[in-house]
Amino acid sequence: MAQIQKNFWVLEGLDGAGTTTQLRNLEAYLSQKGVKVHCTAEPTIHETGRFLRKVLSGEIKVPQSTVAYLFAADRDNHVNNPEYGILSHIERGEIVVSDRYKFSSLAYQSIGFDFQRVDELNSAFPYPEVVIFIDTPLQSCIDRIDSRGQAKEIYEKLEYQRQVLANYERIFSNLPSGCRLLRIDGSQTRERIFSDIVQGLGI
Predict the structure, then answer these.
(1) Residue 146 DSSP class
(2) HEC per residue, the chain
(3) Which of 2, 20, 129, 203 is deepest in the core (most CB within 10 A)?
(4) The domain containing residue 35 runs over which residues?
C-alpha cells in the first residue's frame, strides 16, 4: 500500500505554469495565518540539485537515464535528510509545500527513459496528501517562457511539453487512495488561481 504523508502538499505543472509564484503565495498566506510552513522545491538547493540545474540548463549533458537517477538521489536527500529533509520539517509540526516532486520525474524523465524504471526509482518516496496541478494551456506556458527573455532549459519546448502533459494525465489517473488531486485552471489570472487553490485546500 502506498504511503501517504500528511501535511505534505505538492505543486505540479508544465514549465511556465506558475507553480513557483503560487508556492510563494501559499508561503505568505499560511505564515500570515500563523501556520508553520516550510516551502521547498526540486531540484533542491543542495549539491545534487545544483548539478541538476546545470544539466537542465544544458551546461552539462548526460543521458536521460542519468537525469532520472540524479533526481531520485536529490529527492532521497530532500525527503530523508535528518536536519533539513521534508520529513524532519513535518515532524517539527510544519506543513511542507514543494514546488515539484516525484510526479515531475515520471512526467519528464520517462521521455527517453522507461516509465516503469522511473517509477521504481521513486517508489520508496511517500505520496503527498495533496497534489495541486496548475493546468495551464500548452501554448500559454511556452509564451510565458519566451517572455522571460532567458535561455530555455532543455525541456522547455512545445512538443516536449505536450508529451509531459500526456504523462501527467497518465500519472494522475492512477493516484493512490488518500492522495488528492486538486486541478486548477491555469488560464486564469494569478490571483484567481491562488483563490482557487485556497478554496480547494480549505484554508
Answers:
(1) H
(2) CCCEEEEEEEEECCCCCCHHHHHHHHHHHHHHCCCCEEEEECCCCCHHHHHHHHHHHCCCCCCHHHHHHHHHHHHHHHHHCCCCCHHHHHHCCCEEEEECCHHHHHHHCCCCCCHHHHHHHCCCCCEEEEEEEEECCHHHHHHHHHHCCCCCCCCCCHHHHHHHHHHHHHHHCCCCCCCEEEEEECCCCHHHHHHHHHHHHCC
(3) 129
(4) 4-201
Q: In the predicted model, what is the mean pLDDT of the chain?
A: 93
Select from 81, 119, 103 the least CA-distant residue to 169. 103
Given a cut of 90, whether residue 148 has pLDDT beyond it is: no
Residue 174 sits in a domain of what CATH number? 3.40.50.300
Res 67 pLDDT > 70: yes
The rounded distance, in Å, linking the Cα atoms of 22 and 28 is 10
Cell 503560487 identifies what position?
A: 22
| pTM for the whole structure | 0.92
Q: Cα-flanking dihedrals φ and ψ of residue 73, to 5°?
A: -65, -45
Q: Domain count of the chain?
A: 1
Q: What's the pLDDT tens digit per position in 80-110?
A: 999 999 999 999 999 999 999 999 999 999 9
- Give the span between the Cα atoms of 33 and 36, in whole angstroms: 9
